Q: What sequence folds into this?
């Protein structure tokens, strides 16, 4: 019997054939990296980012990562709505990697037997081979290792891109993340003056398309395969049911709100692998913003809202000047408030009356 | 007197007039027969130390509401919240707008949800006509009394705010909210699910918040934190009582879209009504009218 799962996996065989020629070509020009230092870095779940140097203290290195793909049911809002999630390393978005320009990234991608679908990875930071997608397609029970050279600095999306209709479906099921390639001498302003951050947060934005039953309630499915046929028409409508940060409505609020303090400089990396978005920090600004995320271009300054093109990641540097609760939103406010794209910063420190003061508290309008 | 209180006071008379008119038009309309007065609990007269609902400010900083002692005369209130089926009769009579209630998962009777303040007032007027009694929303004070041991009002602390730094209060409130957060549970539960309180009132403090007739106020306090310097009343916004207090615009039907002082917003908005002590003359008139026009 020809099952839906077989139908989905059937795509793999074709892709593997397509992948053969570039693989042979890649093997022909083998180079020797044995002289380079290697470092193995453990990835951490967003919004946090693994420890890294802002200015490289060595020459180019080979940075080794491992990511295990995990298909799992995830809750995406406070009403218990579920998504048949597909994740890099168990989180939506996948973890952020940080390397320096000129480093080699060596990723081992694992697709455990417990998964039901083939997956791969396309790095927008990589050159050739569909960003690595052509060399990394693996079935459940397989793993692969890809190496690419980080030739350009900036924040770049990575995502799963198996083939055809599978591509958008895997991406809107959660399979995207970001790699930040720092200039070896760190971030700089338009005059080449160094810019440094004390904290970095990675905010990955996702659009989800959850089917509803006749009564209008979201449907829960048993497996990704079960959800596929119903999800496709919702995707084609292009109107997400959820637009969220860090995988779920409210995931970066309350106890999980991001924290800072007055005087601290924070780098916020924002990715959207599928759809345009427009981050805005309510009551704050973007002091220096690489809207397209590419550090060889001078940063824009004093932005109110910045535009992240679907399929890219951008970076904004901000020094908090006032304490309080800041909402960090997608400034399509319907998406922020109704669909979930809101995060919070809790910022402690001294209030600056010079920047803002309530001169007269709300009260009755005086009558003369 | 704010307009809504005047309207409520006039409501009894208007209702009877309408009722007679309706009966005159429809002759042997049987809607009146189908509706019996819902069971009520009599709450004895009492005196209550009550933090008034609203926003209280001292030089622009939020303060806890001053606690005042208030006398509450005896009143009779519905034992249960108004039911989905009860409300449906008002809709069928063309006097209420269909509720935004999700189809309940239980086959047993559930309270009506997805109703605004306007809907609650419309239902009270209709119920008055068909039962010959006068019904109205409870005030927040009455709701506090009937809530008995389940009354919670505002639950945030007011410790350690800094007059020079408003962010201290904002951050404290934000953390209080986080601590009070609970899983959302919007599915209406059958009557009795949340039990009865010591006064015999059923299901108060469950997943249905209850509209009151109390308007939102913003009060400027003097430095003694009791004396009022200013007071602005907004009667397009009313207080709801439940697991915690909520403040909503009158047209709101979905509690999750409205605001809340602390904690997760209400899962559902519903109501129960106070029956005014008998108005024997008017009630008798209504019955006589009914007799004349059909029975
Ligand atoms: Cu995939």
A:
């Amino acid at each position: 019997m020809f099952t839906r799962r077989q139908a989905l996996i059937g795509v793999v065989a074709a892709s593997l054939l397509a992948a053969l020629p570039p693989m042979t070509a890649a093997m022909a020009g083998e180079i020797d990296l044995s002289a380079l230092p290697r470092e193995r870095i453990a990835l951490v779940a967003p919004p946090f980012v693994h420890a890294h140097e802002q200015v490289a203290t060595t020459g180019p290195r080979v940075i080794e990562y491992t990511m295990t793909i995990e298909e799992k049911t995830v809750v995406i809002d406070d009403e218990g709505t579920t998504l048949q999630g597909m994740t890099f390393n168990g989180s939506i978005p996948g973890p952020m990697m940080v390397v320096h320009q000129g480093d080699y990234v060596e990723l081992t991608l694992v697709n455990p037997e417990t998964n039901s679908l083939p997956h791969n990875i396309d790095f927008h930071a990589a050159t050739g081979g569909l960003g690595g997608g052509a060399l990394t397609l693996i079935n459940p029970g397989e793993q692969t290792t890809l190496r690419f050279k980080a030739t350009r600095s900036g924040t770049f999306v990575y995502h799963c891109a198996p083939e055809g209709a599978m591509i958008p479906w895997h991406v809107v099921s959660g399979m995207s993340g970001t790699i930040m390639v720092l200039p070896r001498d760190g971030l700089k302003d338009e005059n080449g003056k160094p810019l440094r951050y004390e904290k970095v947060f990675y905010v990955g934005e996702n659009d989800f398309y959850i089917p509803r039953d006749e009564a209008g309630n979201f449907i829960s499915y048993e497996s990704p395969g079960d959800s596929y046929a119903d999800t496709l028409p919702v995707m084609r409508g292009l109107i997400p049911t959820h637009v969220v940060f860090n995988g779920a409505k409210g995931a970066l609020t309350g106890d999980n709100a991001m924290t800072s303090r007055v005087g601290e400089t924070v780098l916020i990396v924002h990715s959207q692998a599928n759809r345009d978005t427009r981050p805005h920090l309510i009551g704050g600004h973007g002091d220096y913003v690489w809207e397209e995320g590419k550090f060889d271009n001078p940063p824009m300054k004093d932005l109110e809202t910045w535009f992240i093109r679907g399929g890219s990641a951008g970076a904004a540097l901000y020094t908090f000047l006032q304490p309080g609760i800041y909402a960090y939103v997608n400034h399509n406010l319907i998406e922020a408030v109704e669909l979930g794209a809101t995060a919070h910063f809790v910022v402690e420190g001294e209030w600056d009356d010079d920047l803002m003061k309530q001169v007269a508290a709300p009260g009755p309008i005086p009558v003369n | 007197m704010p307009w809504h209180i005047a309207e409520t006071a006039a409501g009894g008379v208007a209702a009877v007039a309408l009722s007679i008119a309706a009966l005159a038009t429809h002759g042997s309309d049987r809607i009146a027969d189908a509706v019996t007065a819902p069971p009520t609990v009599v709450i004895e007269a009492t005196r209550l130390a009550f933090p008034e609902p609203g926003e209280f400010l001292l030089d622009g900083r939020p303060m806890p509401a001053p606690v005042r002692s208030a006398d509450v005369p005896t009143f009779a209130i519905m034992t249960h919240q108004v039911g989905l089926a009860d409300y449906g009769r008002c809709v069928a009579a063309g006097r209420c707008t269909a509720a935004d209630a999700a189809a309940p998962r239980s086959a047993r009777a559930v309270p009506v949800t997805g109703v605004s303040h306007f809907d609650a007032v419309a239902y009270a007027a209709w119920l008055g006509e068909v039962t010959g009694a006068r019904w109205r929303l409870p005030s927040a004070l009455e709701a506090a009394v009937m809530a008995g041991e389940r009354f919670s009002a505002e639950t945030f602390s007011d410790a350690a705010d800094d007059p020079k730094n408003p962010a201290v209060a904002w951050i404290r409130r934000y953390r209080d909210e986080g601590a009070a957060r609970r899983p959302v549970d919007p599915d209406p539960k059958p009557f009795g699910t949340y039990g009865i309180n010591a006064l015999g009132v059923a299901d108060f403090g469950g997943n249905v918040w209850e509209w009151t007739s109390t308007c939102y106020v913003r009060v400027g306090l003097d430095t003694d934190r009791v004396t009022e310097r200013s007071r602005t009343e907004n009667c397009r916004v009313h207080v709801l009582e439940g697991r915690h207090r909520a403040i909503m615009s009158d047209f709101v039907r979905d509690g999750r879209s409205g605001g809340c002082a602390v904690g997760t917003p209400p899962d559902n908005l519903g109501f129960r009504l106070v029956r005014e002590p008998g108005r024997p003359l008017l009630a008798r008139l209504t019955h006589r009218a009914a007799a004349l026009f059909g029975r």
